[in-house]
Amino acid sequence: MSALPPAESSGTHVERFTLDFRTHSTSLAEMRRSFDSWLVSAGVDDDVAYDLLLAVNEAVSNSVEHAYPPGADGRVLISAHLKADGTLCAVVSDDGRWRVPPAALSGRGRGLLLMRENVDQVVVDRTSRGTTVSLCRSPRTRRSEALDDRQDGHEVLVEERDTGVLVTVRGDVPAGTGAALRRSLLTAARGGAVPVVVDLGDLGDETAGAVHAVFAVADAASAAGNRVVVLARPDTPAWDALTASGVPHVADVVSPIG
C-alpha cells in the first residue's frame, strides 16, 4: 500500500488523498488507518469523516469481494478531496468485473445500502473495464432531516419474496413525511441491490412524499442494475402524480391486476 503525496494543499488543510490498495497484500484496517489519518490532517468534521470512512470501507470491500477472484492481487484506487464548501468526496475504482448481488434475499447487498445511508450521494459506474463508485458527504447537519422523519398518515408493509421485496404503502404521504418513506424503501431494497415492487394502490390524496421516495429508490436500483416496479391505479391521485412528475422514465408504473 502506498499513500501518495497530496496533489494540492491550502494552508494546513490537505485537499487531496490518493491510495493504491492491493487486494491480496493490503488489509482494510490499514486502508482505514491511512484514510482516517488524512481526514484528521484535513480538519474534517468528525461526523462527516466517520460517515465517509464507513462508505469508502464498504465500497472497497465490495471491490475486494466482487471484482476479483478469491486470492487475486487486484488493484483498487481510492482518492478523496475536500471542496471549498466543506463537502467531502471520494472515488473508489477497480479494473475487475464487479458482480451484482443475487435477487434472492441474503446478507449480501447491504454494502450499497450502508453507503447510501451514510453519505448524500452515491454514483456507481460499471463498464467492461471496471467499476467506479463516487461518494460525497456534505457538511450540513442532519438535524433538519431528522425533524422530517415523521410517518404520520401512512403505513408501510414489507413482504420479502424469493425474487425481491413487495412494499405496500397506504394512506397519505405528504412532502413532510417523504424522508421516512424514502428510508423505508431504500432499506427494503437494500440500497437498490434487491428488486422491489412498490404498491401505491391504496395511497391517499397527498402524494408528494411518495413520489420523491420512489424517485430515490428508482435511482438506487438503477445504479445496481435493477428497475423498480410501481403499482398504481389509473385515474387516482397517485397515478396522476407519478405520471406528471416523470416517474415512468425511471421506473415501471403499471396498474395492479384485479
UniProtKB/TrEMBL annotation:
User: Coiled-coil segments, which residues?
Assistant: none
Q: Does the keyword Kinase apply?
A: yes
As one GO molecular function, the record gives: protein serine/threonine kinase activity
Keywords assigned: ATP-binding, Kinase, Nucleotide-binding, Serine/threonine-protein kinase, Transferase
Q: What is the official name of this protein in its record?
A: ATP-binding protein
| Species of provenance | Umezawaea endophytica
- Record flagged with keyword Thylakoid: no
Query: Where is the secretion signal located?
Result: none
One of the Pfam families matching this protein, by short name: HATPase_c_2
Known InterPro entries for this protein?
Anti-sigma-factor_SerPK, HATPase_C_sf, HATPase_dom, STAS_dom_sf
Residues of the Histidine kinase/HSP90-like ATPase domain = 25-136
Gene3D superfamilies for this protein: Histidine kinase-like ATPase, C-terminal domain, STAS domain
